[in-house]
Amino acid sequence: MITAQRGSLLRAKGWRQEGLLRLLENVLENGEDPENLIVYGALGKAARDWSSYHAIVESLLNLEEDESLIVQSGKPIAVLKTHRDAPVVIMANSNLVGQWARPDYFYELYDKNLITWGGLTAGDWQYIGSQGVIQGTYEIFQSIARQAFGGSLKGRFILSAGMGGMGGSQPLAGKLTGAAILVVDVNEDNIDKRLDLGYVDKKTADLDQALGWIEEARQKGESLSVALVGNAATVYPDILDRGIVPDIVTDQTAAHDLLYGYVPEGFSLDQVAQLRENQPQELEEAAGKSIAKEVSAILAFQAKGAQVFDNGNNIRTQAKRFGIENAFDIPVFTEAYLRPLFERAIGPFRWIALSGEAKDIEVIDQYILETFPDNDIISNWIKLAREHVPFQGLPARIGWLGHEERTQLALAVNDLVASGQLSAPIAFTRDHLDAGAMAHPNIMTENLKDGSDAIADWPLLNALIASSSKADLVAIHSGGGGYTGFMQSAGITLIADGSPEAAERIKLAITNDTSLGVLRYADAGYQASLDEIAEKGIRHIQLEK
Ligand code: NAD
């Protein structure tokens, strides 16, 4: 079992290398299936295989300040001489060329051990446990509350599925809004993990009992989270048949992947493993049919007045492939609820205490509350997170911050490291699902104003500018499994070690990262982005249309 090194003792030749090594260890410490190097998202891997893992560790331990480690789909390729301002690690995960970017070809290469899927935060060592998307899910629910329920979800019923690496945050995010939330998962072990961590209140395998608990909480206006052991393809239609209509319905199973992710109804986990081995096509067919059944139920809930949304797992795309022509009547969460934030490059930013000390995060919480008192998004969230969100692995937080705010926070934290108020350096990363960092026409960039949804130049520019702006790790990711060809994204990490050089790196890399986010939406014609550019003095070259 891999656990992240704690404390202030260095094993590598500098904190940049040590910090990235601890992050690699941390994604496995928090991973869903660490023995197979799987971090989350059914197949999202930290390294290609164990020999790759050990070679990456060895390289990071021995890497000089003026060298860079090159990683291709989880396999270390070389250590090259670069310079002290170059990234410590650059990597490319799961990128396939145009017409070859298909699931069947990806799996063929995967079986030959030539490629891995890095997910968004697995392959580039940024995953911080289920809390990684918790504020995003919370903000979606809050946004629905404002749009459809007079600002509050008290007394409301949320239905979802999937309690894995990312989906596991749903019960807690739902509960924090004051609602009663029911989350269905076929894998009881995954439910038990979230129970142990405090991400969910209760579990049962009896639908009537679950609905009874939900109804009681709803009536009393109490918040509650319930996990139900079951298959969403069976449970959603069963709830519909009982004439019950939840207020909000979504799904965060690993529906993007029909071979390794979504479990078809009527099959045990062991049967799925056997089918995958012996009759993969039959498995894909069965999973697709179950998804179609579940999505039909979601559409029926929508017709009866429920607020429904796709939570970033490509479930609509799969359903459409399997015959549900109107699957895209379900809106995607980004377009429906989060785009106004992304237009100003406000997105999920993370900080991770490399010391392993929770008190380092508390110092940063305090700084944020004092520095951004008028920013409700971040200050409300930090207050909630402080009280309710448990740490997993190295203590960390995720909080939605925008252009200049992220740089300001990271620079202040770098000073706190320098002055000894934090016990070791802090790593900063952000989700790939960020304004300038992802082209995903079915999730992030769906229905952009100017129709530029599928243009992948932006995340590629993002990685290039991060590399030239001294980021410590830069990654270019694309799809894998069912996601193949659906997206292009970029990831960056910086280590705030308290040095003036780290301050310079933060200033350049984080500022340019969020600048590109604002510019991407300005280019697509969003007024809020143009306003942000004018307010913050970003040097935009605006041509006459
Ligand atoms: P995971 O593989 O760790 O967990 C998936 C869970 O779904 C498992 O617990 C599995 O048992 C359960 N499951 C599968 N089929 C089921 C079924 N038919 N009924 C009930 N439960 C079922 O995956 P994850 O990391 O939690 O990610 C889930 C999805 O969310 C992925 O598609 C991922 O790409 C997507 N995602 C979205 C965002 C976002 O920002 N919205 C962020 C990260 C991931």
From TrEMBL:
<keyword id="KW-0456">Lyase</keyword>
<dbReference type="InterPro" id="IPR055351">
    <property type="entry name" value="Urocanase"/>
</dbReference>
<dbReference type="InterPro" id="IPR036190">
    <property type="entry name" value="Urocanase_sf"/>
</dbReference>
<dbReference type="GO" id="GO:0019557">
    <property type="term" value="P:L-histidine catabolic process to glutamate and formate"/>
</dbReference>
<protein>
    <recommendedName>
        <fullName>Urocanate hydratase</fullName>
        <ecNumber>4.2.1.49</ecNumber>
    </recommendedName>
</protein>
<dbReference type="InterPro" id="IPR035085">
    <property type="entry name" value="Urocanase_Rossmann-like"/>
</dbReference>
<dbReference type="InterPro" id="IPR035400">
    <property type="entry name" value="Urocanase_N"/>
</dbReference>
<comment type="similarity">
    <text>Belongs to the urocanase family.</text>
</comment>
<keyword id="KW-0369">Histidine metabolism</keyword>
<dbReference type="GO" id="GO:0019556">
    <property type="term" value="P:L-histidine catabolic process to glutamate and formamide"/>
</dbReference>
<comment type="pathway">
    <text>Amino-acid degradation; L-histidine degradation into L-glutamate; N-formimidoyl-L-glutamate from L-histidine: step 2/3.</text>
</comment>
<keyword id="KW-0520">NAD</keyword>
<dbReference type="InterPro" id="IPR035401">
    <property type="entry name" value="Urocanase_C"/>
</dbReference>
<keyword id="KW-0963">Cytoplasm</keyword>
<feature type="binding site">
    <location>
        <begin position="252"/>
        <end position="256"/>
    </location>
    <ligand>
        <name>NAD(+)</name>
    </ligand>
</feature>
<dbReference type="InterPro" id="IPR038364">
    <property type="entry name" value="Urocanase_central_sf"/>
</dbReference>
<feature type="domain" description="Urocanase Rossmann-like">
    <location>
        <begin position="129"/>
        <end position="337"/>
    </location>
</feature>
<dbReference type="Pfam" id="PF01175">
    <property type="entry name" value="Urocanase"/>
</dbReference>
<comment type="function">
    <text>Catalyzes the conversion of urocanate to 4-imidazolone-5-propionate.</text>
</comment>
<feature type="binding site">
    <location>
        <begin position="262"/>
        <end position="263"/>
    </location>
    <ligand>
        <name>NAD(+)</name>
    </ligand>
</feature>
<dbReference type="Pfam" id="PF17392">
    <property type="entry name" value="Urocanase_C"/>
</dbReference>
<feature type="domain" description="Urocanase N-terminal">
    <location>
        <begin position="2"/>
        <end position="125"/>
    </location>
</feature>
<feature type="domain" description="Urocanase C-terminal">
    <location>
        <begin position="340"/>
        <end position="533"/>
    </location>
</feature>
<feature type="binding site">
    <location>
        <begin position="165"/>
        <end position="167"/>
    </location>
    <ligand>
        <name>NAD(+)</name>
    </ligand>
</feature>
<dbReference type="GO" id="GO:0005737">
    <property type="term" value="C:cytoplasm"/>
</dbReference>
<dbReference type="InterPro" id="IPR023637">
    <property type="entry name" value="Urocanase-like"/>
</dbReference>
<feature type="binding site">
    <location>
        <begin position="231"/>
        <end position="232"/>
    </location>
    <ligand>
        <name>NAD(+)</name>
    </ligand>
</feature>
<feature type="binding site">
    <location>
        <position position="481"/>
    </location>
    <ligand>
        <name>NAD(+)</name>
    </ligand>
</feature>
<dbReference type="GO" id="GO:0016153">
    <property type="term" value="F:urocanate hydratase activity"/>
</dbReference>
<feature type="binding site">
    <location>
        <position position="185"/>
    </location>
    <ligand>
        <name>NAD(+)</name>
    </ligand>
</feature>
<dbReference type="Pfam" id="PF17391">
    <property type="entry name" value="Urocanase_N"/>
</dbReference>
